[in-house]
Amino acid sequence: MESNYDYILAGSGLAGLSLLNALLRDDILQHKKILVVDNVKKDLNDKTWCFWEKQAGPFEHLVAKEWKTLQFFSPTVSKTFKMKEYSYKMIQSGDFYNHVIDHAAQFSNVTFLIANILSIEESGDEVFVQTDHGRFLADFIFNSTGLFYPQMSEANTLLQHFMGWFIKVEEKVFDSNVGTLMDFTLSQEYGTTFMYVLPFSDNEALVEYTLFSERVLDQSAYEKELRDYIENKLGLDNYQIEHREFGVIPMTMAKFPRSIGSQHRIINIGTAGGHTKASSGYTFQFVQSQVNRILNLLRLGKSPLVRLSLREKMFQWYDMVLLDVLLQKKVEGEDLFSSLFEANDPELVLAFLANESGFWEEFKIRDSVPFWPFFSSGIKQLLP
């Protein structure tokens, strides 16, 4: 195997394969020598990505289901809303992996290597990935592994952790056109806790138990809550679990480095590059945005280091403020989201969470949450 490449993608998850897909669909960059390194072959349906967007995206053909009508429930708020601009979409990771890898198989300039990544380093004029199968150099390395994660602790990080069951029942009980975005009518003893229910046919649905808290639970606790919700809230006694998923996403105030080394030739992407939204855990669309900007820079022969715009820094500040409020328990998560969805057009809340809202819309969002907790946390995040 050759040891020199134009680009090395360290990690073949969402970020790595999104970048690979974009490179191979670009007339200028698709002939570059690319090495993709991961310690596993991506062939399992291990994740479900949900997101909202206004138009058809680059992976529209992979969308397993989309919803134009969503619901929000809490002890004080009940809303069903039909979206005018956004569609809420679901992509299965297995479909995504297979699509990108099958397309990449057509290119002789792309090499996949299953190996353990021991280090990613800059030494003099070289940047390289050291694996248990050898050392590989590149002009640029795009890292989506956890090698350079910042220090996270219970003081600066909430974990978004979730267990989901894809269930199937004999009878037709679901309205496949209506998804439940958040249902907070659950015990909040472990922290911010909600269920979401996404039916993709009249007898099949994803039911997912989600929490924002400092620590994960025992597996039995997730299972108990899912069983209770399905049986008592959905009223289903006889169901089959077709597929299970579990995940943990950091929602953190820690700063993820966007590049490593003085030459900015080791670029962190995806969660490793700070492109998981700190206040919500959403990743899919933020990764696609970063990939597009990397592509544009590479096409121009520039460094692919994406620098934050002023607007992005503003949204990052919003994220830090919200996280500080939740971490300091100034406002309970259930009360916070209830306030947002009660006082605002839900589509505005989604726009805000997608970093797509405007200044006056953000003023309305700020005006709908408790003033003093957010004011004190906002000032705190402005101080050095």
UniProtKB/TrEMBL annotation:
Domain of life the protein comes from: Bacteria
SUPFAM superfamilies: FAD/NAD(P)-binding domain
Listed name of the protein: Lycopene cyclase family protein
